[in-house]
Amino acid sequence: CVFALEVPSAATTETINTIKLLEIANGDENGNMNYSKTVTRAEFVTLIMNTFNISRNIKKSGYNDVAEEAWYAKPIAMAKNIKLIPDKLTENNNFYPDRALTRGEVSAIVLAYADIIGADNAEGFKTFTDVSDFGIWAEEIKQAAALGVLNGYPDGRFCADKNITRAEIAEVVKKMLELKGRRYFYVDPQNGDDENNDGTSQK
Questions:
Q1: What is the dihedral of CA 23, 38, 136, 50, to 10 degrees?
Q2: Distance (Å, rounded) from C-alpha 141 to C-alpha 152?
Q3: Over 151-194, what HEC string results?
Q4: What is the per-residue DSSP string for the chain?
Q5: Residue 151 to residue 168: CA distance in whole angstroms
Q6: Phi, psi of 21 (to 5 degrees)
Q7: Distance (Å, rounded) from C-alpha 159 to C-alpha 161?
Q8: Tens of pLDDT along 71-81?
């Protein structure tokens, strides 16, 4: 996706403050958040698991390319267990954790999260000039946009194949927190603390 328009290179002040307040993302050794840099699959999955306090006693994901000793092994294993990782993100039982995440792939994870918490499609389906009905992420993009979590650019494009930046991820996480105006936390119903008796606990 080649841009002839200004692409956001930094998250809004409100989003930055939210991310810092919740302590859900860390900067580098100098405290810089590096909002223009890309995000890997492993980083995004780990961020979601930490943000929403998702915890299960699972360490092995079963993916061929996710070593048990890797720093992201447990969050990926938990994400797979709760079906946060769509099958379309894997190939031959590989997750490719170090691969830069695209906007289309993020939309699929967002939609999986929405299904987990039972979020409603509040805004109606949206269309984008560069997303056909037969694109690999077409349905996920439309629904993620309808949820108000991941939007397109001012020129009407979505740019599904564009690697998403940390700034954009910060906005996505903030909007995920705001879905339906509530925060949800996944809990293990087998271990109790399941207020809704469905794997979610509303706070």
A1: -20
A2: 9
A3: CCCCCCCCCCCCECEHHHHHHHHHHHHCHHHCCEEECCHHHCCC
A4: ---SSPPP-S--HHHHHHHHHHT-----TTS---TTSB-BHHHHHHHHHHHTT---S------TT--TTSTTHHHHHHHHHTT-S-GGG-BTTB--TTSBPBHHHHHHHHHHHHHHHT----S-----TT--TTSTTHHHHHHHHHTTSS---TTS---TTSBPBHHHHHHHHHHHHTGGG--EEE--GGGS--TTSSSEEE-
A5: 10
A6: -60, -40
A7: 6
A8: 999 999 999 99
Angle between helices 138-146 and 103-117 (to 10 degrees): 60
pLDDT of res. 126: 76
Global pTM reads: 0.77
76 and 61 in contact (C-beta within 8 Å)?
Answer: yes
CA 168, CA 1: separation in Å to the nearest integer? 16
For tokens 């405290």, the residue is 31
Query: What tens digit of pLDDT does each residue of 19-68 get?
Result: 554 544 555 666 666 778 889 999 999 988 888 777 777 878 999 999 99
